[in-house]
Amino acid sequence: MSARGYRNLHDHLAALDGAGLLRTIDAPINKDSELGPLVRWQFRGGIPEADRKAFLFTNVVDGKGRRYDIPVAVGALAASAEIYSVGMGRPVPDIGRCWREAIAEPVPPVEVAGPACQELAFEGGALAAGDGLDALPVPVSTPGYDSAPYLTATACITRDPDTGIQNIGTYRGGLKAPDRIGLKLFMNLGQGGAAHWEKYRARGEPMPMAMVVGCPPPVAYVGPQKLPLGVDEIGVAGGIAGAPIEIARARSVDLMVPAESEIVIEGLVDTGCFEPEGPFGESYGHVNLEEYNFIFRVTAITRRRNAVFTSIISQVTPSESSVIKRVAYEPLFLDHLTGHLGIRNVRRVAMHEPLTNLRKVVVLQFAHGTPRTEIWRALHGAMSFQAPVGKYLIAVDEDIEPDNLDAVFWAMSYRANLAEDCERAAHQPLGHGPRTGASEDAALLIDATLKAPMAPVALPAREYMERAREIWERLDLPPLAPEAPWHGYELGDWSETWARAAGRAAESDWIANGERSARFRRSDVAPNRAFREEDGE
């Protein structure tokens, strides 16, 4: 770790390389037609998350033959939870606690002079003379659908004109000209930058903004996080780093920016005019079609001499943008339920990622025997924690793996009585998703936990499956990747009598079981009537 107490992007890439998590590509790669699809295969090619890498492209070109002197890093922030963990400087299990402590005890930044992010500076006529946005190797994320190269891994810094508190948000920016960007602010998602823009519009003034590309990881991770309005997020980044983030005054706008940034794009967001922006492939898995959006007029671009440009793989999930949210959101939701609401029996909060992009399907895992009232309190608490999150909320027992939707559907099928265990909550926000013409949505809450004892899961008991696996491996059969449930287990409705009968059957003594059952023949019962201990033994 450097004297500043935290890693910048260069340090982070070196750490990823040392951990075997960085793949460097020196071959020429076209940023507008090849780079995005190449990295996309890592997420759509059946590669397990644990095997995903960050990519560093050192020989970036475009379709017109231009070569760029700035390398491009993709997946370096959160292609996997392990990569995110390196950036946070914490093991994955400790990330939730790290966020909790950083939010509770932020570390104020410290101002420095002569920042690395301003080693090179381009303003005024230089922007139109080849040193503007067109000099940056901004990739096309979704070739065939996107209308422009897009800035995606941004930390957009704005300031509340009333309080002076700055906000960091991750907003997309489509290149329009060497000094103009089409900016997407989601007005319905409670973004800090949107709230600030409303205040500047009321004043009749443009909004100063700095789009930072290539932040130190603690700063980059704050941008996508949903923190309360009014929180100085650079302090939260310092809490993550365990040291004050070094900041410096921007050159052309009155904002403070991370001194260890790679590239800073300064400018003003128009509060009077809009222009068409898009199409662009969005993180909810569909293309956001062309619509009127914000205009960001660039006043200066500053950067390090050896800058690295960062981009995030988004669009259809799983993606880097979904991992960067999932790893932080899940423990924060769990902390809300257990810490703020005091529901102690919640084991996990799992947000479904593939295709649905985390916000729509949320599974809560509970300890066996959790009171029904606590389960419903948790379902409602999760639904109301963040407005865009929670269209389908499902409660399951701790024997159900929340990340395995087959297991979740299994619980929904046999442990939920929809006449009693289902609730529809109307008047919910639409959240982040494709346009459908609707003005509001609803949420569906399902309690799919056990309400009474059930018979065992119908798979061979664990000891038999483990013995069979030893045989499997001795026979040199294909490698196994066990899927839960991979062995039977009891769910409360099972007796010692039946256990003994099962043991005899496994020992080939099934005739003894037939002799036992013959003792209980009756003529006064109907077929399919349950046999219980009270029938006699």
The secondary-structure class comes to alpha+beta
**Chain-averaged pLDDT:** 90
**Number of beta-strand segments:** 26
N→C terminal distance: 71 Å
CATH superfamily of the largest domain: Electron Transport, Fmn-binding Protein, Chain A
3D structure, described in words:
This protein is of the alpha+beta class and 537 residues long. It has 3 domains: 303 residues, Pnp Oxidase, Chain A (Roll), CATH 2.30.110.10; 107 residues, UbiD C-terminal domain-like; 74 residues, no CATH class. It contains 14 helices and 26 strands. Strands 7, 8, 9, 10, 11, 12, 13, 16, 17 and 20 form a 10-stranded antiparallel sheet that branches. The chain is elongated, with a radius of gyration of 28 Å. The model has no long low-confidence stretch (mean pLDDT 90).
Helices and strands in order:
Layout: H1 9-18, E1 22-25, E2 29-30, H2 35-44, E3 54-57, E4 60-61, E5 72-74, H3 81-88, H4 95-104, E6 110-111, E7 120-123, H5 125-131, E8 150-151, E9 154-159, E10 166-169, E11 173-177, E12 180-183, H6 192-203, E13 207-213, H7 217-222, H8 233-241, E14 246-249, E15 256-258, E16 263-269, E17 275-277, E18 280-281, E19 287-288, E20 291-303, E21 309-311, H9 320-340, E22 346-351, E23 361-366, H10 372-385, E24 392-397, H11 405-414, E25 422-428, E26 441-447, H12 462-474, H13 496-506, H14 510-518
Parallel strand pairs: 1-3, 2-4, 5-21, 6-14, 23-24, 24-26
Antiparallel strand pairs: 3-5, 7-20, 8-11, 9-10, 9-13, 11-12, 12-20, 13-16, 14-15, 16-20, 17-20, 18-19, 22-23, 25-26
